Task: inverse folding
């Protein structure tokens, strides 16, 4: 991959969220300087948002009490089929907790699709951010719609302390990602390939996770040797994708 995707220095990063998919390495200053977190595309996983330790709102177009209840029922049935399975028991308890957390904290969630325009079923990023004027952390995993809001991210950079964004179909949208990297004032602090996405014919990842910070703390000058010790494969049953950076 082009070296533009490789951070220029080693930064002070910690892992937030799960050990695998849904967990990200985030720069410490961007956490400490943030007062609020917005998670776009959370589906039914808000481990990152809760672990972040700040007030948050999670947004997804499928998220609802009915949606979660259906998934809870499925786990109950799977457990009843094999009540001696420790894995299914743990999954059931986890989802019970998730369901009741949602019911108790409904004000932290919003059901809508995120895009670059407003409609009855869609909100633009500009509209979502209109109530905030500073110290915001943004996490984005909206399954390809991230390309629709890149310009609006750039327009709102002054209020963003940190950003995690997952890019899909990288081979198709490489020019858009590269343009974003060249135009953002945020500092790229981490790169990680998502091994659920596979690779293209040249072995480059098709899905990548990028982390940015407004005022990151540099631990060591010079690019890091990736993956870092806190990097884990999104799919724990497959090895992480090895990425080679080069000048194009």
Result:
């Amino acid at each position: 991959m082009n070296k533009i995707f490789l951070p220029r220095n080693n930064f002070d990063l910690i892992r937030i969220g799960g050990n695998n998919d849904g967990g990200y390495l985030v720069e410490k200053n961007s956490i400490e300087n943030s007062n609020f977190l917005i998670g776009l595309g959370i589906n039914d996983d808000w481990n990152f948002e809760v672990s972040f330790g700040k007030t948050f709102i999670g947004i997804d177009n499928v998220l609802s009490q009915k949606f979660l209840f259906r998934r809870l029922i499925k786990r109950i049935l799977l457990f009843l089929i094999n009540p001696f399975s420790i894995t299914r028991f743990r999954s059931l308890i986890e989802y019970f907790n998730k369901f009741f957390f949602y019911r108790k904290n409904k004000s932290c969630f919003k059901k809508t699709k995120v895009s670059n325009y407003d409609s009855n079923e869609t909100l633009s990023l500009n509209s979502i951010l209109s109530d905030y004027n500073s110290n915001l952390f943004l996490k984005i995993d909206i399954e390809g719609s991230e390309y629709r809001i890149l310009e609006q991210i750039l327009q709102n950079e002054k209020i963003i302390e940190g950003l995690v964004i997952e890019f899909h179909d990288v081979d198709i949208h490489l020019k858009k990602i590269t343009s974003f990297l060249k135009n953002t004032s945020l500092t790229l602090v981490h790169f990680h390939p998502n091994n659920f996405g596979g690779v293209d014919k040249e072995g480059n990842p098709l899905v990548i996770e990028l982390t940015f910070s407004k005022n990151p703390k540099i631990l060591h000058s010079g690019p890091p040797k990736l993956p870092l010790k806190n990097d884990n494969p999104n799919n724990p049953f497959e090895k992480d994708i090895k990425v080679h950076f080069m000048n194009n």
